[in-house]
């Protein structure tokens, strides 16, 4: 057992450094990855679609796509994977890692920026660096219309009004005939500046044993 543990620590030390997870957390997430993949080396979108806890989530597809978005590998590469291995899976999960008592103020700020960037990428589906009205509409419509309490047209009207408010706030001198191209990352950061991220960005459906990474309220 001790030799196996030592070998695991040695084999995954680079992942500890890349993600900030402990060896124990990586072990637990590896177990969950194996459960999802059926002990295969990669997982596909279909594997994540089969998770019961995701079935009724209004942004289920955005969450799933986030795992295959190359931008969420802590790099600038655009595009998406057809399937991902454990390292890619772990890199995505690291966006949900909460700070510890030893996390410095600078590290906390960097982690928060990564979380905001992750959320921005979920909305900026075409990777052009802006959340357009069409992209914003799609998310708002799914969030509101699928709740069963509001019609799709009403949800669209709410999305349009919200985007107009964002535009007027971010571009105060915009004329009535000016076209607002969309929410930039800087605008998005400003919108979320008062939102507490640590307790909100978690993934419950990935729970396994002692893993402390969650999603939901």
TrEMBL record:
This is Calcineurin B homologous protein 3. The keyword Cell membrane applies. Coiled coil: none annotated. The lineage of its organism: Eukaryota, Metazoa, Chordata, Craniata, Vertebrata. GO terms for biological process: cell differentiation. It is found in: Cell projection, Lamellipodium; Cell projection, Ruffle membrane; Cytoplasm; Membrane. Residues 111-146 form the EF-hand domain. It is a lipid-anchor. Pfam families: EF-hand_6. InterPro entries: CHP3, EF-hand-dom_pair, EF_Hand_1_Ca_BS, EF_hand_dom. One of its GO terms (molecular function) is protein kinase inhibitor activity. Belongs to the calcineurin regulatory subunit family. CHP subfamily. Keywords: Calcium, Cell membrane, Cell projection, Cytoplasm, Differentiation, Lipoprotein, Membrane, Metal-binding, Myristate, Nucleus, Protein kinase inhibitor. One of its GO terms (cellular component) is nucleus.
